[in-house]
Amino acid sequence: MRFKSILILLSAASLAILPSCHKKNEDTESNPFLEGSVKFSIPSYMKVGEQVTVTPKGAVNPSTGKVGYYWLSSWDTKRDTVKTEDGTGDGTFSLTAPSATGSYSVTVGAFATDYLGISASKQTTVVDPSLEGSLKGAGYEAFSSMVDPRDAGVYYLTTAEGKVWMRNNLYYSGSGVSYENSAAMDPIFGRLYNWNEAVNACPDGWRLPTDEEFAAMAGAQGDILSSVAGSMMVDATFNDNKMWTFWPDVKINNSTKFSAIPVGYAVDQEGIVKFIGVNQYASFWTSDSQDGTATYRYIYVSKNDVFSGRGDKESFRASVRCVKDDNKEE
Q1: Domain boundaries defined on the chain
Q2: How far is Cα 320 from Cα 294, in angstroms, rounded to an integer?
Q3: Lowest mean per-residue pLDDT among 93-102, 139-148, 184-193, 274-283
Q4: CATH of region 7-127, choose from 2.60.40.10, 1.10.3720.10, 3.40.1550.10, 3.90.1150.10
Q5: Residue 258: left if φ>0, alpha if ψ -120 to 50, beta else—which one?
Q6: Which residues are 311's β-sheet partners?
Q7: Is the pTM of this model over 0.70?
Q8: What is the structure's pLDDT at 139?
Q9: DSSP helix/strand/coil, 15
Q10: Residue 263 near residue 234, CB atoms below 8 Å
Q11: Distance CA 267, CA 82 (A)
Q12: Which helix (H) or strand (E) segment is 147 a member of?
């Protein structure tokens, strides 16, 4: 289930009355629609104030080939006609995300003389990646931090069982994939890595933890780490929506200061990355491996145990928490 805030949508009625074509006569009901279908791409998530370039395609005027385009967003209801029917260009528009977080809609419409216009809408969620921005309640501000010299990523640190751990998920930009392929989410959710990427993703002086180290940090042993999930989960919100939903058997207290959030996992399927289990699972690679699989640890929203799984080294993707090398000074 993809995490979504309440969508601020344009009403169907308001779309219906927007002028989407220019008419030479008053009898518009007999005019045909433009052919084809309008298409465009927009990131699923955008940073506040982020600017992206969007280009429409797919609308066809079978008579003259001439088509005009306008853009409309739910945070700014002024229609921007970026190309007239006889104008130059392809309808490309520079879209700037609003300063308020939340979910919004973006609409593009195509119009032409003697034709009924056609349009398409997509949604994007605007996020604030700064500390206590979209992600609130993780408690990072109370802890020491380090900056990854490779890409300036900021990581908050905690100590458990004598070892220094990263408290937020790794988001090294040199490998892995962004949640929903949106780089705006990297500092918030971290990236998801296959195991072959994960073993090389930590900064110099850091590494993937062994499964034994992960269990020791959680304060339990075995394939199932019993009754410790709540001690690793943090009661955080994303865009003011609670991430871990309440279950009576799980008492979230984050006593380990691990600050696990449920960003799910991902699977590579025929060249497409499928994101699964947001708000339900938190999954973390360990360095333990055998043949083509490796061990990961995961938490499920309604269980107070931490489970062990085996994932394919190339196609399964999980979060990464790095632990400081024992022979490296802080």
Answers
A1: 7-127, 135-324
A2: 13
A3: 139-148
A4: 2.60.40.10
A5: alpha
A6: 294
A7: yes
A8: 92
A9: helix
A10: no
A11: 39
A12: strand 145-147
